[in-house]
Amino acid sequence: MTSNSSGLIRFRFHILVVLLGLFAAAALVEIAAVFGEGFPDWYLHAAMWGLLLTYGFLALTRFWEGKRFRPWIYSVIFVALSSFWISVMARLIPASEVLRNGVLAQREPMSILWVSIVLLALTGVGVVILGVIVPKAVREKAASNQKQ
Questions:
Q1: Cα(61)–Cα(78) distance, rounded to whole angstroms?
Q2: pLDDT of 32-53, one tens digit each?
C-alpha cells in the first residue's frame, strides 16, 4: 500500500469523525429541544436517533471495509429515514396548540430544530459522498487483509 493510500484512509477517517460529530450534535439539539418543550414522547425521538445511528454506522463501516453492495442498501435506508425525520422535525417548528395538564396552550415556535435539520442533512450528504467516493486504496486494503 502506498503512502498516498494511507493518507486517503486517514482522510476518510477524519471525514467519518466529522460526520459522527455532526450527527451527535443534531441528535442532542433535537432531543434537548423536545425534552425542554415538555413533549411526553421525547423518548421516541431518542429511539429514532438510535435507529438512524444504527443504519448510518452500518453503511459507514461497510464502506470502510471496502464492500460494494451492502453499504448502498444501508445508505439508502439511512437517507430515507433521515428524510422522513427531517420532515417530522420541520412539522414541529411552527407554533402550535398543545394539551398541557388538561389545558390547551399555545406552544412557541421551535426554531432551534433548524439546526438539527441542517446537521442531519449534512450528515446524509456526507454518507452519500463517502459511498460514492469509495477509494481504490480502501478496497485494496480490505482485499489484502482478507488474503492474510
A1: 13
A2: 999 998 888 899 999 999 999 9
What is the DSSP annotation of 49-62? HHHHHHHHHHHHHH
User: What span, in angstroms and rounded, lies between the C-alpha atoms of 11 and 15?
Assistant: 6
Would you say 2 and 131 are in contact if contact means Cβ atoms under 8 Å apart?
no
* Residue in the structure block whose three cell numbers are 456526507: 126
- Rounded CA gap, 142 and 68, in Å? 11
| 3-class DSSP state of 96 | strand
Task: Name residues of the chain where pLDDT drops below 50.
Answer: 135
Q: How many angstroms separate the CA atoms of 129 and 73, rounded? A: 15
Amino acid sitting at position 115: V
pLDDT of the residue at 59? 82
CA distances from 22 to 29, 30, 35, 39, 125 (A): 11, 12, 20, 24, 11
User: Is 23 in contact with 50 (CB distance < 8 Å)?
Assistant: no
Arithmetic mean of pLDDT over the chain? 84
